[in-house]
Design brief:
This protein has 180 residues and is mainly α. The protein contains 9 helices and 2 strands, in the order αααααααααββ.
């Protein structure tokens, strides 16, 4: 076998394995970490070229292992811990599931069907107040009717929609509301 840098470094690693582990353990403070660093050093020897001869293989291997250890430590600082990952996974999904979407679309379609069955003026009153958020006074002015007529048309529209949707009208302060 030709005396290449890779071959010399591998031979040095095999011959001085225990010594390298001892030096790395002292330097890194952990024998497990030293073993991992030296193992990855062995894997990185495939990248070594013969462009410039390595003068001190033991020091070269030690320097590679130290650099590997630094890279690993740096990578660990960017990694999340188990508790952090659990906290991220525990975030509740605010998007409605498909069943809720289908149910909501069905309710909207039923409401549109109920609105279509109303006479024109009570439908405009209900749409103005409930959907557009316009005040009863503004609806009265827009349709050129009295406030009392707006209240009656709203009551009629709500009763009609409640009947079509199979719900009951509940009287509350501020006006009637639909209840399932």
């Amino acid at each position: 076998m030709a005396d290449t840098n890779q071959a010399r470094l591998r031979d040095q690693l095999v011959q001085n394995y225990d010594g390298l582990i001892a030096r790395l353990t002292r330097r890194l403070g952990s024998s497990d970490f030293a073993y991992e660093a030296l193992h990855e050093t062995f894997l990185r020897l495939d990248r070594v070229t013969d462009a410039v001869p390595v003068r001190s293989p033991a020091d070269y291997l030690f320097r590679i292992a130290i650099n590997v250890a630094k890279d690993r430590r740096k990578a660990q600082t960017y990694r999340l811990g188990v508790s952090e990952v659990d906290a991220l996974l525990d975030v509740c999904d605010e998007q409605p599931d498909t069943a809720r979407v289908v149910e909501a679309r069905s309710e909207i379609a039923a409401f549109k069907y109920a609105l279509a069955g109303l006479p024109d003026r009570p439908r405009q009153v209900l749409e103005g107040i409930s959907i557009e958020g316009v005040t009863p006074q503004e609806v009265a002015a827009r349709l050129q009717i009295s406030l009392r007529t707006v209240e009656n048309d709203l009551r009629l529209a709500l009763r009609h929609c409640a009947t079509v949707l199979g719900r009951t009208v509940v009287r509350r302060r501020g006006g009637p509301r639909l209840r399932p």
